[in-house]
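Researcher: We plan to redesign the surface later, but first we want a full-length starting point. Tokens attached.
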């Protein structure tokens, strides 16, 4: 079976993990945690970062630090992995779901419409007229590593006084190479950025995440909350409820090794994308979705669009599986999940369209040319 996406662990990972083991520092204290935070911060060109247990934990902390409170609302996309949304529920806040546009990222036109027509600015903040609740933050996702329109998102959230949380779980390494954010990385442009190092992400720590924050004080507070909000490390005095969210030294050691390989991984992903795209662009039934033209995108996942009404997505998946090719549909839309089906969803139209017509095709950095050729041939027969 050619897998969809598997980790590539051929760098210094083993060396660093053995070093961490030998040092005896395997838990949340240890030099690799600091080193990973520093290496990530310097790669991302930001002053600091907080390494945590998962991308979900990073998003949760970002929402807490954005000031999201029980009974308030957070604007989220429906086309995303559920981890972009669940942290709102952890806090007791409600998601308001937005549609995607043709890039699969959050539709900024609809967001603007919603803010303009459905909300009112008051002295206590932006109020959603239909629910009478305060909206505190917007979570956007750089879907499959594709840079969202940060210029518009910053302008809109600035205008309406909302915090902007970038779920950059899939977009490590994506940066603008033109425009007003030239040189800036996905996850470092909003108020907060969350990354994930889950096993299928572009680099992995087995499980893990990282938070960046515009404001250095927020970052310090994130680290404090992630370490059980411990105010006195000898007497164990805590003045608020914290979380056990710190990354361990072993995870960080893996991460330091993986980060050294990131640029190579992106080059491979770019080359494989071009190779696929060359072949697929001449097929009638399929095309590959493009990435943001203003950015160097990490091209984490490739989206194969089924360009034929008569061709069923599940049938395509099945035919490819019979040829030992693993693919998968996009996540079931979050506004249709049982826990969220009664939440507000604002004119969701494109997300179901794309959900029905896109599958992700194998994109591991260890893909061989003969694998890609086999996949291309299998597609050409459908
Ligand atoms: C992977 C992912 C996350 C969070 O991942 P964790 O598994 O908690 O590290 C969040 N959002 C998106 C869009 C993701 O793909």
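Model: Full-length starting sequence:
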């Amino acid at each position: 079976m050619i897998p969809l996406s598997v980790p590539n662990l051929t760098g210094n990972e083993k060396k660093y993990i053995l070093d961490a083991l030998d040092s005896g520092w395997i838990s949340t204290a240890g030099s690799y945690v600091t080193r990973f935070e520093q290496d990530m911060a310097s790669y991302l060109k930001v002053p600091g970062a907080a390494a945590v247990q998962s991308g979900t934990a990073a998003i949760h902390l970002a929402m807490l630090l954005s000031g999201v409170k029980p009974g308030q609302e957070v604007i989220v996309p429906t086309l995303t992995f559920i981890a972009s949304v669940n942290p709102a529920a952890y806090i007791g806040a409600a998601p308001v779901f937005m549609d995607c546009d043709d890039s699969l990222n959050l539709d900024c036109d609809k967001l603007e419409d919603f803010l303009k027509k459905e909300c009112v600015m008051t002295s206590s903040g932006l109020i959603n007229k239909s629910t009478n609740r305060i909206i505190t933050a917007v979570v956007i996702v750089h879907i499959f590593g594709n840079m969202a329109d940060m210029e518009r998102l910053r302008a809109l959230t600035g205008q309406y006084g909302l915090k902007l949380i970038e779920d950059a779980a899939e977009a490590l390494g994506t940066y603008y190479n033109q425009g007003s954010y030239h040189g800036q990385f996905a996850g470092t442009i909003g108020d907060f950025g969350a990354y994930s190092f889950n096993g299928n992400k572009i680099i992995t720590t087995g499980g893990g995440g990282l938070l960046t924050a515009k404001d250095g004080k927020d970052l310090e507070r994130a680290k404090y909350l992630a370490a059980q909000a411990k105010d006195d490390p000898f007497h164990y005095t805590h003045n608020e409820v914290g979380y056990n969210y710190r990354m361990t030294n072993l995870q960080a050691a893996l991460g330091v090794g993986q980060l050294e390989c990131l640029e190579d991984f992106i080059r491979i992903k770019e080359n494989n994308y071009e190779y696929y795209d060359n072949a697929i662009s001449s097929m009638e039934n399929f095309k590959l979705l493009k990435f943001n033209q203003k950015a160097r995108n990490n091209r984490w996942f490739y989206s194969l669009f089924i360009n034929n009404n008569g061709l069923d997505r599940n049938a395509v998946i099945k035919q490819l599986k019979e040829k030992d090719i693993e693919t998968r549909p996009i996540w079931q839309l979050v506004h249709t999940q049982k826990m969220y089906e009664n939440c507000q969803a604002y004119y969701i139209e494109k997300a179901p369209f794309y959900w029905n017509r896109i599958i992700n095709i194998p994109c591991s950095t260890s893909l061989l040319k003969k694998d890609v050729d086999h996949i291309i041939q299998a597609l050409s027969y459908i």
